[in-house]
Structures are given as structure tokens and as C-alpha cells.
Amino acid sequence: MEQLKIVDMTLRECETVSGIRLSFKERLEIAKLLERLRVDVIETGYISDSQADTVFVRTLASTIQNSVISCPVALDEQAIERTWQVLSQAKHPRLNLVVPISSVQMEYSYQMKADRMQARTQELLTKCVALCPDVEFTAEDAVRSEHDYLLRMIQLAIESGARTITLVDSGGQLLPWEMTDFITSLRQEIAALSQVQLSIQCKNDLGMASACA
Known about the structure:
- By secondary structure, the protein is an alpha/beta fold.
- It contains nine helices and seven strands.
- Helix 7 (about 145-160) links the parallel strand 5 (about 135-140) and strand 6.
- Helix 2 packs parallel to helix 3 (about 50-65), helix 4 (about 75-85) packs parallel to helix 6 and helix 6 runs parallel beside helix 7 (about 145-160).
């Protein structure tokens, strides 16, 4: 039987998408409400060098008992180590390695070509898995990536120990039936996807995010 899980990204997306700046208290209250609603995963924002980020995630780690607390990390060893130090006391911690997959995003965000990005991703996934028992691989701009490259990256992530694979429609371009075809094709081509949690992140630019999900 298929099991659906809900990942809430309010704490991660509210400032970057809507420009709303929440206070420490507001963010903590939102997290508590999400847990009361039995949301499976609460995703925080990236943990920067700021003391505020560190204190907030440490507070979440000691407060949230049932939901998974997921922290996104970029392709940076120091950021991964810093995030894990803050997150490690959580009852259900998760490191989420966020990796751009399309050629445009790879070169714009990291000035890397595909082969270099693949090697770097494997290196850092291995590091994340060594630190945390629950690791997620998020493929940003997955639907606009080269199909064969996306297949290789998903397979690499699973073989490296990622337990959740998240595919992002960063441009919010897919219609519901296109999302269905996209996911169905990947399931058929990568048998190992049946052994991990498969997640999608839909943008709502066309007002279709809920329908796609």
C-alpha cells in the first residue's frame, strides 16, 4: 500500500518566496502547530553563520518530538558539518542535500559542469550519510534537466545512501498529466526508486501545484 507523507516548507520558503520575515516566536509557533497537525516533515531554512539560525534550529530540535526536522544543505562541507552540529540533537533529524540538476542551474549556482557536479554530489552525499541516518537528495530543476543525467544522479543518490529522493519542478511548468508521465517514466527506468521515499516539490506559477501533487 502506498503511503503519502506531507513535507511542510513554510519555514524555508516564507522569506525567500514571499519576503515575509517571521520573528523567532512566530517561527517556533508555526513549527508547533505543524506538529500538532501531524505533518510528517518540517523543513527549516538553510543554517547560516548567524546565531539566530543556530539558536532557532537547536530550539526546534529540543521541542519537536514527532515530526522529522529536515535542514537543507548546499554543496559545502563546512555548511554540512555546521548544520549537523545544530541538528544532531533532534529526535528525528534529516540532512537534505540540495543539488541543481539542469545545466543552466549547475553553471549559474556553482559554475560546474555535469561530470564535476556528479562527483561532488557523490562526495558530499557520502559525508551526509556518515553523519546522519536520514539523508534526502533534492534534485532542483529536475524536470528541465537532461533525462539521462537525471537518471544517473538519482541512481547515484540511492547508491550513496539517500533514503528520500525529491524532484523539483523549479519553473512550475508541468501540467498534471505531464507530471504523471514524468514520475511514471522514472519509476519504470529506476527500479531502486521503489526502495526509497519519492517526493515532489511543485511550484505554483501556473496555479497547478496541488493538481500536480
